[in-house]
Description:
Blueprint: H1 2-45, H2 76-89, H3 111-114, E1 125-128, H4 143-151, E2 153-157, H5 165-168, E3 182-186, H6 204-216, E4 224-229, H7 231-242, E5 247-253, H8 265-273, H9 281-291, H10 293-303, H11 307-318, H12 325-329, H13 335-347, H14 353-363, E6 367-372, H15 381-390, E7 395-399, H16 412-426
Parallel strand pairs: 2-3, 2-4, 4-5, 5-6, 6-7
Antiparallel strand pairs: 1-3
Pfam families: Abhydrolase_1
Protein name: AB hydrolase-1 domain-containing protein
InterPro entries: AB_hydrolase_1, AB_hydrolase_fold
Amino acid sequence: MRRWSTWPRTAAGAASSALAAAVFAFLDVLDVALCLVYALVDGILEESPARCYCHIRSPPDDDEEVSDTLYARRSAVRDALLGLVRVATKTRTHRHRAPPEKPRWSDCGCKSCVAWRSGAGRLHVVAKEPDKPNKDAAGTESDETATAENNAAAIFVHGFTSSSSLWAETVFRESSVLSNTKLFAVDLLGFGQSPKPADCLYRLRDHVEAIETSLVEMQNLSSFHLVAHSMGCIIALALAAKHPHRVKSITLVAPPYFLACEQSASQVALSRLAEKKLWPPLLFGSAVMSWYEHVGRTVCLLLCKNHRLWEWLYTLLTRKRDVDFRVRDLTKHTHHSGWHTMHNVICGGARLQDRHLEAVQAAGIPVMLVHGVDDPVVPVECSSRHLKAKLPRAELRLMPACDHATVLLGRERGFAEDLAAFWSSSE
């Protein structure tokens, strides 16, 4: 009787798997077709068109921060079709050519998207000064308060679909709770208002070095707290491992971490964070943008290049004067920066996380893990089980009824209060 009661669920699962296989097989074919289309259009519109990864079968060098997922996203349909394309076109593999001096035809060239070209090449940083210190009866600032204000700083690092606005529009507005602390939020390299160079592979060290030169050195930060969300956690851990004596504490919100040996960590991260499933829609979108280079470029062509149109439609439909930062942030990158950051930071960085965690643990840096119990993007066991095993002294906070976004959004005050208490205990 039990066998008959489970057959509807089994049949539904089989039908769902068959449908997913058909959809992703279609996307395999579409991606190869788009490869030919973009090769033709790039050859016409660009002086030095860059090769896509369909025609590069192995990394250009032995750089361990260049992810193998850029070259080895295996699919029988895709591989067979690409084999025919290589034979038909007699394509030779070679390195990427010199980047174009102007934006690619498929990228947006509006003033806000290319403003960084006229700057000094530094990351865009949003700073929030601490509240004015208390004064004594004579109206002078106490030495203890002055010292705290001068020494306390915190760096906030956003995730893959965000920018510094994630923090500036939320936690920074609760700065009264985080008294005597100067808050800094950066737009990561390739995101928001920061530089988006076409000759950069957006490796983990590229992001870390950009934060060092644009913020840590510029502000002469001798010590600081680190707060990061999602993908930003990988970068924050790399920064902490490089400067363990400067970091006072680390707060990781929804950190992606999967147990795997270094040789397969990149592939494990890709398959877990961008699993080929149709549901939920967020996971399907991640799979499309992570597995299909040319389909992803087409999505960026439609969304990013035409972001002013979508922003206008948003204000028209919502009758709001300002575009929600979550909508605006989705379009503030190029396909080149997004594609390489996804693979070289999220996937490639997975191979380096264990050594970074070991450095943090050895340095005795206090760590707080915050994770939404209902997170569909990064499973809660990443924090509750995997990271907790690597950082046994870490403080773990599981947020009920919270997902990947609402673990921050909607509970800004509570999160700021948790930060203040954690920072105080870390002194």
